[in-house]
Amino acid sequence: MGRNDPYIDLGTDARTAPTSRMWEAMQAVALNATPFKGQEAVEALLARACELTGQAAALLLPSCTMANLIAMMAHADRGDQVILEESSHIAWSEGWGMASIAGIYPKLLKGRRGAIDLEEILSAVEASVFSHRPRTKLLCLENTHNAGGGAVLPQAYAAEVCAAMKEREIYVHLDGARIFNAAVALDLPVRQMTEMYDSVTINLNKGLCALEGALLCGSAAMIRKASQLARALGGDSQHKAEIIAAAGLIGLNEMVDDIAKDHRRAYLFASAVQRIPGIGVELQRVQTNIVMVDVSGTGLAAKEVLQRLKIRGVASYLYSDAVLRFVFHREINDEDALRASRLLGEAIG
């Protein structure tokens, strides 16, 4: 989206275009890479990912969906139980690969904006019927939590849960597609938020604005196994991976500071929208770059409001019959945020 484009895309931050610096770096590595130099670009990205997350090794993959699936397959065997928050991205938006491909049984627990009570987790781990108990090998958490409106997991909660799982020899995987948003919101180094986990995924587009790609980070042994699994799933043969790596490295090094602007604009939008009659927005829940807007009080279905917004040049995302999701990113400025709020008011009449 150019700055002269009146269209305001708040549907997702996954469609952000690479920066000019990224395009230049991608072109330079594409023109100059020999097989050796191309591998250097990928290795530089993986080394930076390990430095940022506190993990020992990393793997570049096409998407976070594949990275999450491979992490689950690396940690759990067929027939094992994995515990997930019931509205998590892995549970609802990744095609149930854990079941259809990995043969892992998902145990879905209700959380509060992504955070499952530790007592609920332990109860699921220890539950048995007639002395039969499924073997729990893995717990998956998500930070930030997409369906929770970009909610950030409290640091003390994450540390307590990881410690409890370690005592029981249960792995903990973090779907950290937007972990940099969480780190900015809490004003903490990413490493402090990720080194406690057994594995972490990071999305290189969205807030980091790279062309595509995801990182899976974990122990050296886990990543060796993940690499073998990636080969079987078609994710280990990314041709021209150095081009993806060149943009991804700039994303990790240069784009994190701009994420705070996305958060501020999300709050600016939410503050304006909450004054529209019939609209429900909880300002205290706007922690990062996602705003969930309940339109049920307007008497209109969210799908109808979505279409009315589209006609007016604003893209949103249908979360439920009553709720629309608005996501802020580098290509949205203050004027866009305020204009989108005005157009939402027009859309509901």
TrEMBL record:
Quick one: a GO cellular component term?
Answer: cytosol
Q: Which cofactor does it need?
A: pyridoxal 5'-phosphate
InterPro entries given in the database record: ArAA_b-elim_lyase/Thr_aldolase, Low_specificity_L-TA-like, PyrdxlP-dep_Trfase, PyrdxlP-dep_Trfase_major, PyrdxlP-dep_Trfase_small
Keywords (alphabetical) are: Pyridoxal phosphate
The N6-(pyridoxal phosphate)lysine modification is found at: 206
Query: What's a Pfam family this protein contains?
Result: Beta_elim_lyase
Q: Which GO terms describe its molecular function?
A: L-allo-threonine aldolase activity
State the superkingdom: Bacteria
Record-level GO BP terms:
glycine biosynthetic process; L-threonine catabolic process
Which residue ranges does the record assign to the Aromatic amino acid beta-eliminating lyase/threonine aldolase domain? 9-295
Q: What protein family does this chain belong to?
A: Belongs to the threonine aldolase family.
Full protein name: L-threonine aldolase
Q: Which organism is it from?
A: Cohnella phaseoli
